[in-house]
Design a protein that fits this description.
This protein is mainly alpha-helical. It has three domains: about 70 residues, Multidrug-efflux Transporter Regulator, Chain: A, Domain 2 (Orthogonal Bundle); about 50 residues; about 180 residues, no CATH class. The chain has a two-stranded antiparallel ribbon.
Length: about 300
């Protein structure tokens, strides 16, 4: 058949795989107009109708509406413009579907109440600015009035989640849980206590020597004992405790006495909050970082060892 051949609706249906009813529907709306009429008044179409119908089917499969498709076919707007706009719309839909999936997955895992589910959904839908304000408020509560120490500025930055533009489902789930955690008044108070203890340590010690805080001292000394299975209440633990308290006393220019050990115990107990550990784990997921080191085992060991060595 050459370019001048005309086709009936039945011919188009056989060539395109569309139904006669569908082709008539598109024809009635001017998307695939007939080129002529038969003597009996039936619509006839040119070869270009096959190409138009193939494009219409493709664009419909991609979700475009008929008015937009007609503008593309009539060259009122370019296919490139339509494709770009539709891709952006799909990206928004995908983000929203990920948010919904994350909320529903979390609800299913936790067995949440309707009120909790509503809160999670609201947290998941927050804009980037709203997320920053929410976390900024939490961090300001913990660190905001502790002076202009660059160290605390760095800590606040390192504790800030940065949810990517196209997050994975587990990142959204982590964000929702972290946001909930940041609003927990008891957790906020615990982070504040930890920051105050940290600030007090810095005020006491020689700044040049403060490359490691008390948690780092414990980690370095306790690791081998923990690996070796040393009982924290046994005599074998004595040199480990003594090494940590001696180093702590040296750095902070304090006598290694019961008062120092009580202060160290309070510092470590505030740092050993499982919610703090969970916050850091969630933060790593959101920001795409490596999983943080779990310090709970060494802190549990040393806190128990220190308690039995502090006079009543």
């Amino acid at each position: 058949m050459d370019g001048g051949t005309l086709y009936s609706i039945g011919d188009l249906a056989r060539r395109t795989g569309l139904t006669v009813k569908t082709i008539r529907f598109y024809s009635d709306r001017g998307i695939v107009p007939p080129a002529d009429r038969s003597p009996a008044g039936h619509r006839l179409y040119g070869i270009d109708a096959v190409a138009r119908l193939d494009l219409v089917r493709t664009l419909r499969d991609l979700g475009l509406d008929l008015p937009t498709i007609r503008k593309v076919l009539d060259q009122e707007i370019s296919l490139t413009e339509v494709a770009a706009a539709h891709a952006e719309a799909l990206a928004v839909q995908i983000r929203m579907l990920r948010l919904r999936r994350a909320v529903l997955t979390t609800v299913a895992r936790r067995g949440s109440t309707p009120e909790e589910m509503d809160l999670m959904h609201k947290l998941a839908k927050l804009s980037e600015d709203a997320r920053r304000r929410l976390i900024g408020d939490f961090l300001d509560t913990a660190f905001g009035d502790l002076g202009d120490n660059p160290e605390f500025v760095g800590v606040m930055r390192s504790m800030t989640p940065e949810l990517p533009d196209n997050p994975e489902a587990e990142q959204v789930e982590a964000w929702v849980e972290l946001a909930e955690l940041s609003q927990d008044p008891d957790f906020r108070a615990g982070v504040r206590r930890m920051a105050e203890h940290h600030a007090a340590e810095r005020a006491l010690g020689d700044t040049a020597a403060l490359r490691r805080d008390s948690v780092a001292m414990v980690r370095d000394q306790v690791g081998p004992a923990l690996t070796a299975g040393v009982d924290p209440a046994s005599a074998e633990a004595d040199p480990v405790v003594a090494a940590v308290t001696a180093q702590y006393a040296h750095v902070y220019a304090c006598p290694d006495d019961a008062g120092l050990r009580r202060r160290l115990l309070a510092r470590l107990e505030s740092a050993n909050d499982p919610r703090r550990e969970r916050y850091l784990q969630l933060l790593a997921v959101i920001n795409g970082w490596s999983a943080p080191e779990n310090l709970t085992p060494v802190l549990d060991w040393f806190i128990q060892a220190l308690r039995v060595r502090i006079p009543a």
